[in-house]
Amino acid sequence: MNPMLLLSASDPRPMYQQIVDQVTARVMAGEWSPGQSLPSIRELAASSGVSVITVKRAYEDLERAGVISTRHGKGSVVSDQPDQLRGLLDGTLDLHLAEATATAARLGLDRATLHHRLDAALDANRPAPSRPAARSDVAPADDTASPATPFRKGNGP
Fold first, then answer.
1. Cβ–Cβ contacts within 10 Å for residue 46, how many?
2. pTM of the predicted model as reported, rounded to 2 decimal places
């Protein structure tokens, strides 16, 4: 396990949230296996250049979310229940999507605009996948050909 986390003072998220997000991502990606030991709070604080209190808060949040398990005197390990974690993350995503669609409805956004904004958010938050070179003899698809449907609550994207 490489305990090195990339924390940034310029990231708008608090340091503890950056730790939570990165540990969760590594567990979900299978980089850190169930039962695998995590660095101690002090070790991670020292290697990341943050306070012990910051790492402790992150570990408490990770434990509440079911990502890790902590035993006093034994340290923290990756939870043995990755399906439970996936379910929690799916539920969180559904909640955020419901909030986003409700906000879009209040703003009067149509489906096309909402889809465009979601695509932009996705592009901003993950590296672009490698794709085969585009064929020059094929015209790109026109997603704007159909009329935009106003977005209203209950009329999901």
1. 13
2. 0.57
| pLDDT tens digits, one per residue of 90-145 | 777 887 888 889 999 999 999 999 999 999 988 887 765 555 545 445 455 444 44
Give the span between the Cα atoms of 12 and 3, in whole angstroms.
Answer: 22
Report the C-alpha gap between 7 and 1 in whole angstroms: 17
- Joined tokens for residue 122: 């996705």
| First-to-final CA distance of the chain | 40
Cβ 14 vs Cβ 49: under 8 Å: no
Q: How far, in Å, CA of 147 to CA of 116, rounded?
A: 14
Three-class DSSP labels, the chain: CCCCCCCCCCCCCCHHHHHHHHHHHHHHCCCCCCCCECCCHHHHHHHHCCCHHHHHHHHHHHHHCCCEEEECCCEEEECCCHHHHHHHHHHHHHHHHHHHHHHHHHHCCEHHHHHHHHHHHHHHHCCCCCCCCCCCCCCCCCCCCCCCCECCCCCCC
